[in-house]
Here is the input.
Amino acid sequence: MRPGLRGAILTVLVGLAAPDPAAQAATLILTMRLADAEWQVIRQDVLPPFEQECGCRVRAIDVPPESLTQRLKAMRAAGRMEIDLFAQDNMRLQELVDAGLVQTLSPAEAKMDPAILPALAAEGVLDGRRYFLPFRPNVQITYFNAKKFDADGLAPPRTWDALLAVGRTFKAKEGIGRVLFQGVGGAPTVTQLYEWIASAGGDPFDFADPGTVATFRFLHTLAPLLSPDSRRAKWDTTNDALAQESAYIAQNWPFGVRLLHDYGKTGIRTYSGWAGPAREAHVIGGDVLGIPVGAPHKDLALRLIGYLQSRAVQEVLAARLGWPTIRANATGAVAAWLKPSVEAVQEAMRHGIFRKNVPYWAGYERIASEAVERILWRAQGVSEVLPPLAARLDALRRGGR
Amino acid sequence: MKRRSLLGLAPITLYLGALTLVPLLSTLWLSLAGPGGLTLEYYREIVGRYQFGEAVGNTLGITALGLSLELVLGLAAALALAGTRRGRAAAQICLLIPLGVPTIVAAAVMRSVFSTVGYLNEILLRLGLIRLPVDWVGERALAIATVALADAWKVTPLMLLILLAGLEAIPGELYEAARTDGASRWRQFRAVTLPLLKPALTMALIVRGVDAFRIFALPLALVGRDLPVLSTYAYLEYIEYGSPHTSAASSVILLLMILLAVGSYLRLAGPEEVLR
Here is the structure.
């Protein structure tokens, strides 16, 4: 065969075999960390209408907040960014910015619907630049076993003193602690601790602050009244402890409401929680949306952000999952069984505080976890544990890592 | 011929090089690479932490206790099965079931047994043997024992399989000769079974020992971070605290511990046992 003819045939064959770029639907990769029940709603109810509208596919992947940075770094190092959009814990933003992994958004790109709550709209600006956009605020509420409380004529505690009294009553009656503190260490413990320190009027980043010291003293007093499961309690296992009745009262995110309902645990009710000596305070957690540097489909990612912030989506999330909403106008129909917990969430949000985004959060988490571990589980004295940790924390703050 | 043999070895060499040697060397490099050049700073940092000391102690405790349990139970089951013909296949299948259970499922099962509201406490309470539920993973020593027991439940069948194969390789004539000489069963066990089972025992102890040192999912799922072992320590350093250098340093220490343990055992048992 003549070389010219062979080349022409090959060109035709390659042309026939190659897909038409216009006909190929783009696949957008979105990462989040959700519970199974939450993923079901996102995958079945939220994403399909968007896929239809944009003519694209959205692959939603579960990525824990603690490993997102490493994954993005690995993808960048490999020269192949695969993630288009991520929802990330609002406490783990600084590390993404410091590592240069997230895109800054221009005012036009960051333009938000005026119905988005101003307090939440302000979130996502770091070092004077807008990197993130609000998606899902979250706040911990308190779950209690109404049957057990009623049996002992107890009311859900509204103050630290009342919490101690409840703990003492259960311990005296059953010989085992029934109050749960998420004492496993790491993010669950530190989130709860942060909230308690704030409600005592302390500075969570200063272990010599009187409010912080008072919080640890209170924890030391509470330690013998805690459920043994507290040592292993984190966000998911807290639901187990409540469902199996190894704990009668615990703080946790609202995702447990649906789980407990699905398992027929209707006797577990919710309310906003208790106040410390200074005030009632609840950490506003949740996820914000960001676009990685080098994301292959930035325009589509921006469209998806707008869609996820829309009234329709926020109403689905509120109605189906009981998620707090970022909008003032997304108060759609909520199922009757979800209403009390939605009210508890709204009440907790009224006492909401944002955690400070600091570059040394991972180091802080380590030191705070150690303080809790030694004071709660090793019964070491507060005045013995805190001073050296305060010095370490101070050095960490000055070092900035 | 020689060239063909070398070619035949290429895939395994490539496999070992790409998937074992390169990650190993990268981990070693990561553990030593400081901002200003090679450093032992990350080793100093973790060795200075009390949690790391506990992780080393817990790893050794779980390995020693778990391995002892598995050896005793595996050997007892292998001896019982080796002397049985009827119903042996059924018994073997039943005994092997835990080996097929994924570790995380085994941990979930064990949690329902050992939790404060679990089956074990319920049984003991109903029998009146305890007045209050016991937190089986609350105290460190108890938690080590619980994890070792849970691990033994899952992996003793592997020990059983290796030892059973070893027992069946022992020629029956040796037992006949021993019986003719009037040796008791205990004497037969000591003089015939144990010495000839040594290669299988060595293999079983090395295979299971290396695995026991690397135990990860079971303590994490059963006890949580309250019982750190070296592999969970390395994992949390990387995932939770974003510190790949200290994570790599603890992984290298784990590797050294494994090499030291295997080396010491081979020195005691004789290296020819694994080369047979």
